[in-house]
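# step 3/5: fold
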Amino acid sequence: MRTISLVFYHARDISAGDAVLSEACQAQLDALVQAMIEFEATKVEQIAIGEDGLITAEQWLTLDASDAIVFASSTSLGSIAWQFEKFAIDSHQRHGDFNLNWQNKLAAGFSFSDAPGDEGRAVLNWLVSFAMRHLMLWVGCADRAISPVVADDIRYGERGGQSGLTLSTGSSLLSSPLAAGTTTSAGVLSHCRNFGQRIAERTHSLPRTALDIAC
């Protein structure tokens, strides 16, 4: 059994009512997570960073024990949300100036963004740099258009690029048909599933010794 942890901060969406995520954003996140869960012998832990930028001591231990960690944050003023930045700083200072508990673990990431643009890519670049500071191994997207449906949504691929995904916090603005029962295009959900499957595949492909032993 391999464990993948998803640790994220998402600014509360007023349109979502009591829910933290909008319907469209939740559908995308569910598609990504479900693809990881469906991969054989894979457990997924979801950890939401609080509005104060904190997670619990037990959640820190969960991240330490994970084989892979997926990072995600809302965009804020052209960069990462301050809550995620606080989490990132705390992750380094838990055991002195630098914490190497995550060295050689797999890492991946995505951003939550209101609309296509540079902010989502800026967050992805920030997350890659953060993972490199922990000496982690980054997993990007393998496809731009694996399926014909995804091919119809070339603009979606351009939103996140190869380093990760940019999940839309509003209704999809893309051209392909909406997936049944959602406000999100089938192409977007397919892209999310492909990314989740790739993360799981890469997690299982790396020998456990490589995850546990420092370079």
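# step 4/5: annotate
The chain has eight helices and seven strands.
# step 5/5: archive (pending)
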